[in-house]
């Protein structure tokens, strides 16, 4: 599929990326998981760029399309809490005792 690099660089929201790559999506899934999908997509783009420097921009855009589709599909069967993409989900305060850590006699 032929994609325009200049147009890709102007995209700003999740829906625009899906429309650009002509990928079908459930608006409700994107609405609820927007930041997480874009975060995972962004991580994938960095990996693609780092490991595929010899590819043309068009070839990279094809890989980006696949990466967006995979990022979206992760959240069809998983939750942001399970994926822990953002620091807030990884941080466990030291001064909190979880109920599961309290032993009963």
Secondary structure layout:
Elements: H1 5-8, H2 14-20, H3 27-51, H4 57-74, H5 80-83, H6 87-90
Helix pairs in contact: 3-4
Q: What does this protein structure show overall?
A:
Helices cover 59% and strands 0% of the residues. The chain is an all-alpha fold. The protein has one domain (5-101). The longest helix has 25 residues, at 27-51.
Tell me briefly what this model is:
With 105 residues, the chain is mostly helical. The protein has helices spanning 5-8, 14-20, 27-51, 57-74, 80-83, 87-90.
Number of strand elements: 0
Counting helices, strands and paired strands, the structural category is mainly alpha
Task: Please count the helical segments.
Answer: 6
Q: How widely separated are the two ends?
A: 64 Å
Quote the beta fraction: under 5%
Share of helix, binned: 55-70%
How many discrete domains? 1
Q: Could you say which overall geometry the principal axes of the C-alpha atoms support?
A: elongated
Order of helices and strands: HHHHHH
Give a short account of the largest sheet: none
Low-confidence stretches: none
Gyration radius over CA: 18 Å
């Amino acid at each position: 599929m032929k994609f325009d690099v200049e147009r890709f660089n102007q995209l700003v929201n999740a829906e625009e990326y899906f429309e650009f790559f002509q990928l079908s999506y459930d608006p409700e899934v994107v609405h609820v998981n927007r930041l997480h999908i874009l975060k995972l997509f962004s991580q994938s783009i960095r990996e693609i760029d780092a490991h595929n420097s010899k590819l043309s921009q068009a070839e990279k855009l094809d890989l980006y399309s696949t990466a967006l589709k995979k990022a979206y599909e992760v959240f069809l069967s998983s939750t942001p809490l399970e994926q822990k993409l953002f620091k807030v989900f990884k941080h466990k305060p030291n001064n909190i005792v979880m109920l599961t850590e309290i032993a009963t006699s």
